[in-house]
Amino acid sequence: MASTAKNDGGIVETIKTVVYALLIAGVFRTLFFQPFWIPSGSMKDTLLIGDFLFVNKMAYGYSRYSCPFSACPFDGRLFFSEPERGDVVVFRHPVNGSDFIKRLIGLPGDTVQMRAGVVYLNGTAVPQEAAGQFSELYEQQGPMGQLPRCENGPVGQGDICTKSKSRETLPGGRTHDVLNIDTNGAGDNTDVFTVPAGHYFFMGDNRDNSQDSRFVQAVGGVGFVPADHLIGRADRIMFSSAGRSMLYFWTWRSDRFFKAVE
């Protein structure tokens, strides 16, 4: 009889430990950091397919999208801090509910336009300086098996795929790399966008391979992103793997471990 009670007590303690662990993990994920895998090449070469990072959810305060399954029971944002131009931000897509990661280019009230692949902010060209080339193998990348787009294409499987790289300097002095395939792509020449109050304008660093605020939501783009859809800021890459699975240790990119996101 005593043995049965002891066993029952052990099961109860195990269940309690699991419940407490889940609660702690839920609080941690809700209030502090959210794990995020990079699934696509839209932010190359800042972020590569297979990069793993934690998103800083404290950076901009909290909205209902801060909770798993969008379960936070409030509208708007709590403890809101305005994001800065140039931040790399994870946000909830306004239509399809997916989590996206892009760079913040336009703040509320800004005008944004693309002309021949150059960003014009409030009527002034954002400076770009040639920075060589970005090279990678033309092969399937990540669990989704995506093939990269190449400026020197078409190239064969296993050959070198290249894109022109420029160093872009935003107002305020923040710099980052952008990639270019051509200057006549769908997002290289646009109308003037005026960012509404309470919204933001995002673009991918891989400019010719990014569905972002340059494209309307109805055709798969992002459009303007409301402030309450911001989830957090990407600050540092924790782990990176170039393979189809993180278990393929020979494909790990150790040079990207703990790398700051610029």
TrEMBL record:
Keywords: Hydrolase, Membrane, Protease, Transmembrane, Transmembrane helix. It catalyses: Cleavage of hydrophobic, N-terminal signal or leader sequences from secreted and periplasmic proteins. One of its GO terms (biological process) is signal peptide processing. It is a single-pass type II membrane protein. Its EC number is 3.4.21.89. InterPro entries: LexA/Signal_pep-like_sf (IPR036286), Pept_S26A_signal_pept_1 (IPR000223), Pept_S26A_signal_pept_1_CS (IPR019758), Pept_S26A_signal_pept_1_Lys-AS (IPR019757), Peptidase_S26 (IPR019533). One of its GO terms (cellular component) is membrane. It is an enzyme of class 3 (hydrolase). The active site is at 42, 102. Its main location: membrane. CDD domains: S26_SPase_I. It comes from the Bacteria. Residues 12-238 form the Peptidase S26 domain. It is found in: Membrane. PANTHER family: CHLOROPLAST PROCESSING PEPTIDASE (PTHR43390:SF1), SIGNAL PEPTIDASE I (PTHR43390). Belongs to the peptidase S26 family. This is Signal peptidase I. It comes from Pseudotabrizicola alkalilacus. The lineage of its organism: Bacteria, Pseudomonadati, Pseudomonadota, Alphaproteobacteria, Rhodobacterales. The gene is lepB.
